[in-house]
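To: structure desk
From: M.T.
Subject: fold request, one chain
Message: Could you run this one when you get a chance? Sequence is below, nothing fancy, just the single chain.
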Amino acid sequence: MSLDLPEVAQNRPGAKKRHKCPSSPPFRADWRFGLSLNSSVPAAVSLLPVLSEPPLPADASAARRRWLLPALLVVAGLRLWRLPAAALPDYDSVRNWQIVQEVARFDLTHLFHHGSPTFYLLYAPVAALTTDYRVFLVLNALLAVAALGLFADWVARAARLPGPETALLTLAAGSSVFLTFSGRDFTMSSLSLLLLSLLLRAHWQRLQQPTRRNVLRTAAVLALGLSVNYKFLLTVPILAVLEGLQADGLSWRAGNWWRVLLLLAAPFVLLGALAWLVSGVPLYRWPAVYYVVMFPAAANAAGRQGTVQVDFTYYLRYLLDFEAPLLPALAAALVWFGGGLRRRPLPVAAYLLVWAACTLAGMSLLVKAPRGLLFGYLPMYALLVLLLRRWARPAALLGLLLVVGYNAAQLRQHLYARLPTHYPQVAQWLQQHGIRRVATTVGPALLPAAQARGVAVEVVKTRAELEAFRRRGGRYVLLDDYYRVAGVLAFDSLRRRPAVAAWPESVLTSPLLYLEHSEFTGLGYQATLQRQRQAAQDTVQLRLLRLP
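Reply: Done. Structure tokens follow.
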């Protein structure tokens, strides 16, 4: 329990009135006794300053929702537009689609693939009802919209944004080129963004109200995030920086740090035990995934080995080419909001600046792909809105509308213009011509469409695997240009063979898809796009070849 001393004082005869602190108008300062019965600090001496957001008038909150909800519907439209005409765009999406079907059959052998057991458990009930990959694409897209709604609602409350600015924040972030691109696949990005939004809210609350409960709530969300995406490890240094800036030592006090560690370990123990009991998965399997990711023992199929790749220009070039408003916004935020780093607790703009800057700097040290900035896009778009609010309001609203328009034009060029997919036509052709078994080079995107047609697909990643397929009686291979995207160039010699049939697949020439795989190939920004431009010169990307 806690006792609000200022309110008690106001009720005493002759008590002086409080004066609001002019230095931070969006907030009010309250001095409270933290009289927690389980606190390790005596209640009589635990006087803690708590900076809390004043309650919003009911009509202001309702007005904000009236703007937020329609904006979310528009974003949902962007994410779902022509989505049924798309295929599962990458290897991870197809593999995830396969694993949720295994989990639905209570086969937990691959539960810890990519260190994402909670993701598979979440979608397993859906897989028990349907295997249509389009259902998973739609649900995952809507999950990303929900994540955006949580984030926009929190920023709007913390920064006291009016309704129109809240809507434009939602539209600007929701039309982000990468977030829209990644919000239309079947990977962990959407659920990761949802948990990121919860983590930002929880940790912000912990800084504003430094109590054990808020510290443990933050740790619980982080633990859940780690069970969805191993890349939540990258949030730990950012949280450490923010804790260092707060400098209250609350997380390291006796009675707190070991509770935090127990919460972080709980998913590993519980889900590890579950997989062991159900499918005999070794208890060390999940931690081993983290070790292999950080310290790969051998080069991958594209020849890339290692995770460190220092390059401070990759993400700057990407932002300049695809998310142009964010680069000047981040630079301006360092100037305008950098001074807020000296305030305690941090104002929301400085808090978001730390998340964005640390994400950009940290990921510049590791292997690169646009998804490396996954935890930075929403904070950067929020900083953009907060910066434009410093302008005259008509100019700010016009500027945000221009950002949304720019993003929409980018989406049309890089996303919608590359639809529809032709994998269903390939599967139909194979069925009509009595071909019941086919190999495909690296890219498994044919598999969902082929499964519905009764065609067996075997993914081959090396020429040796293709030769083994031929020796087992395989007669056809689909030369899927995904092998070029992934940088597995051993199949290039097959391009000289005459094709039995061929189809275009424009998404396989997408610069976004190529850049997303630069983490796998280890290539830099310019080298990746040079390879993409060469591939874009071809008129067909799917060639059916007969093996000799």
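Reply (cont.): The beta strands are 2-4, 28-34, 47-52, 437-441, 456-460, 476-480, 501-503, 542-546. Let me know if you need anything else for the meeting.
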